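Render this sequence as a predicted structure.
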Amino acid sequence: QLQLEESGGGSVQPGGSLRLSCAASRSTLNGWSIGWFRQAPGKEREGVSSISRDGVITNYADSVKGRFTISRDNAKNTVYLQMSSLKPEDTATYYCSAKRGTATMRRNDYSYWGQGTQVTVSS
């Protein structure tokens, strides 16, 4: 059983930055592709970004390309989502998730999920 924990959420003004972290408690993220998803109130959970097991392959939703960067530090057992130039429409609960095999942006491909961290972008 893989238990994921997100951290780093908070409130920020438009144009600001946040860095989210995803870590696994009592286990390793090595060998897992990791996805970041978000869900705003009244909306479906959508893929934001994903990264392959070795960090070589990354994927981004069109809405965040050029603003968000996903990375991983396998030595620290952590995956990061650096978010810059944040917009009010980025406001959502952000979840990290894990799957075996290829990194995708499809929610149903992922087996394990964290509890989420809230990101609020508002002036």
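Summary. The longest strand covers residues 18-25. The mean pLDDT is 96.
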